[in-house]
Amino acid sequence: TDTEPAAPVRETAEEIATMEVRGAATIASAAAEALAEQAEAAAASGETASDPAAFRASMRAAARTLRETRPTAVSLPNALRYVLQRMEGQTVDELRRSVVDASDAFVRQLDRAQDDLGQVGANRLADGDTVMTHCHSTDALACIEAAVEQGKSISAVVKETRPRQQGHITAEQLREAGVPVTLIVDSAARRYLDEVDHVVVGADSIAADGGVINKIGTSGLAVNARERGVPIMTAAQTIKLHPETLTGHTVEIEMRSESEVIDAESREQIGEIAVENPAFDVTPPRYMDAIVTEHGQFPPESIVALMRELFGEGAEEPWAE
Ligand code: RUB
Fold it and tell me: Active site residue: 129, 139, 204, 289, which one?
């Protein structure tokens, strides 16, 4: 059909769904880039090339395809909203230009925000500190890498992060940044908290009450860190702020396949059991010391003011049919 998204959009959607492209910020920039590719393809093909309404419809359809890939990281709909709200023009060429420009601006802004929040997060870390990480977050890594660039010597205890082992990516990138890394299984985290000065995690979404939605296991880590007196920060640029939570909506937690938890043979042998695989959890604001953004650091309870300022006009869905 004429609203079937172009091949690059379908490929990006597939890569997000299969987690070849993963992490909230990376998903957001891939989605924005896919919309630019859709605009180029639609401006060059068939009915959409000469019909502004058909072009707009094809952009909305592409955004819906991208939106449906994974539910939890709000950076994805925030990216789609950013680009589609800036789509304007009378002709297809004007529309195409506006989408490509908005996509470029979004990706530039994302990179700049990550650099800026890295500086803020780095100021929380002192020379000689050991940090503990969970999952793989480019925003969290930006803080640690900025601290290293400031000349601070930082070591890391990296949780492997079952079931997908994103900790391996974190371990490799920290090693490349010159940070000595100790990799541990998730269940060893509490034992190692005694040797740690800060816990640094990322976020997929931040709710209006300051709740931090991040990789499953973050909330347990936060509770343990509090009990041990270790400060925990979440590094999250403001595209992680979830506008719908301003009006009482909750953040959907993605449930992934049981095959990530147990192989078919073991499951068969155990017999009739249930297996569940939630990909994210919610850390209540009282267990989080600071949310580090490109606008500075905030106590979780005060993040709602920033959310109102940046997303106050609400969460419209410009991709709706
Ligand atoms: C990734 C994850 C990351 C956040 C933040 O989960 O929980 O901590 O997305 O990442 P998954 P970033 O691997 O399931 O996508 O700071 O890079 O946006």
Answer: 204
143 among known catalytic residues: no
Give me the CATH code for the 120-311 domain, please: 3.40.50.10470
Amino acid (1-letter code) at residue 19:
M
Task: Mention the CATH class of domain 7-114.
Answer: mainly alpha
Structure token digits, residue 231: 């400060």
Question: Which tens digit of pLDDT belongs to each residue from 34-90?
Answer: 999 999 999 999 889 999 999 999 999 999 999 999 999 999 999 999 999 999 999
Interface pTM, i.e. ipTM: 0.99
- Ligand 1 first shell, C-beta below 6 A: 22-26, 73, 135, 137-140, 166, 202-204, 214-215, 279
Kindly list the domain boundaries of the chain, sorted by start residue. Answer: 7-114, 120-311
Beta-ladder partners of 293: 296
Is it true that the peptide bond before 52 is cis, omega within 30 degrees of 0?
no
